[in-house]
Amino acid sequence: MLGVIQYFIHPGEIFITEKLVGTIPFGDQAHTGLNICVATKRALSGVGIGEYVEVDGIVNADTVEDCVHKTVNDSAANMKLAFFDFTGDECSGHMVQLSVWVAYRSPGA
User: How deeply is 91 buried, as exposed, middle or buried, from its count of CB atoms within 10 A (0-12, 13-18, 19+)?
Assistant: First the structure.
């Protein structure tokens, strides 16, 4: 199962919005970088973030990377490959994201 989450930080406020864009079941499909990349692009395009169009396995339009400000993922080889064309951070950025989220959710924060 692949989960795609979108975060918004509202300018001028200390306010974060989290939106589940989609969950994509992988079933028996291998978790290769290419499969993760295509599944992510389909999910984002499906909610209006860029355009990703395939016809008979041939990509006719792909503007998803242009519409994504930054990706955050772990540093596994398949994830590095999946998001190679995106601007993003690996591992350390993901750890900062998790730490900030825990602090944000803590009582009294």
Answer: middle
pLDDT block averages, 10 residues each, the chain of length 109: 83 84 87 92 91 92 89 81 80 71 76
How far, in Å, CA of 60 to CA of 54, rounded?
Answer: 6
pTM: 0.73
DSSP per position, the chain: -EEEEEEEE-TTSS-EEEEEEEEE--TTS---HHHHHHHHHHHHHHTTSS-EEEETTEEEEE-HHHH---EEE---HHHHHHTTTS-EEETHHHHHHHHHHHHHHSTT-
Long-range contacts at 60-66 (CB < 8 A, ≥ 24 apart): 64/40
Kindly give, in sequence order, each residue whose CB lies less than 8 Å from that of residue 94, ignoring residues fewer than 6 positions away.
72, 73, 74, 75
